[in-house]
Amino acid sequence: MKKYNFLTVILLGITLIGCGDKNKGENSLFNIDDSAFPAHFTQKEAVSIGVLNPKSKEIDSITYFVNDKRVGSTKGAEKFKFELKDQKLGYQYLKAVVHFGSDSSDATKRIELVSDVQPKLLKYKIINKYPHDTKSFTEGLEFYNDTLYENTGQKGASYLRKYDYKTGKIFKQIDMDSKYFGEGITFVNGKLFQLTWQEKTGFIYDAKTLKLEKTFAYDKDIEGWGMTNDGKYIYQTDKTEKIWKMDPATQKMIDYINVYSGESKIKAINELEWINGKIYTNVWQKDAIAVVNPTSGAVEGILDMSGLKKFVKNADADVLNGIAYNPKTKTIFVTGKYWDTLFEITVSE
Known about the structure:
Blueprint: H1 3-12, E1 31-32, E2 41-42, E3 46-49, E4 51-52, E5 61-66, E6 69-75, E7 80-83, E8 90-100, E9 103-114, E10 120-131, E11 138-144, E12 147-152, E13 159-163, E14 170-175, E15 182-188, E16 191-196, E17 201-206, E18 212-217, E19 227-229, E20 234-237, E21 242-247, E22 252-258, E23 260-261, E24 264-265, E25 269-275, E26 278-283, E27 288-292, E28 299-304, E29 320-326, E30 331-336, E31 341-348
Parallel strand pairs: 2-9, 10-28
Antiparallel strand pairs: 1-4, 3-7, 5-6, 5-8, 8-9, 10-31, 11-12, 12-13, 13-14, 15-16, 16-17, 17-18, 19-20, 20-21, 21-22, 23-24, 25-26, 26-27, 27-28, 29-30, 30-31
């Protein structure tokens, strides 16, 4: 088994299965020729797109599209070569519009673009252990001005809390309306953004006073899970393999990436943290953290955090969730839902 496959098993606990789409197109006149297609493509490859012409039509030209974007055309039945280096990981939709006589017909095909990055197995060192409220169903965890903020879930028990992580002393707490299930938080441009789970509602607070300034509806029909930011844009998860990119000024989704470890898409991406140009993410119900390239979506590193559980004494402790980077100490803080401990760690290869 390849090393990255072994690491993906740590991350997911699954059997790896190829996901190539080898079904012929639905068009009866022309089909995209996939006879030489591999099960998966990578960004280092190119796809040579041609069509099968079983009824021997006299083809004048073919116009080619990738994900509904026109990428080129050829005369007659010539093939078209398309470089995949700038495409997102995930499914790519190929279309050939075949022109013959005064008519045209479409042929379509789906291919999957996977990561060729071999994730590194990272290790961590526990620097300190601090108390954590065992009633906190941790969803969002983030530092702002050297102070820790935590947002929790569960309807009727969700709250936003500002506190001293060393002692657990609460500086301020905002209890959410019982109809909301709290999720991720992030600070950007002097504002605190807060998500809810299935209510499709977000909140914007003044970062200093925590005064609510605005309520907004989600731009997409998605769930709210984790949040982080790169200083300009917000990144948000929705329980799938997607990480959405949001403009905080408009709360509109402007882009997304799909997270892959090797040939496997990593679903249930949850709490996020931006650390030194990479996205660190919890994977729901897994004792592991994935380090993701925010441009490509490729998993570049994996932290096996299963060893932390032996330090957690609370019998009701749930899954690992919560990542916060403190730029002052240059250390990472991690915890879990209903955990009694907040861990301060460093990470290395």
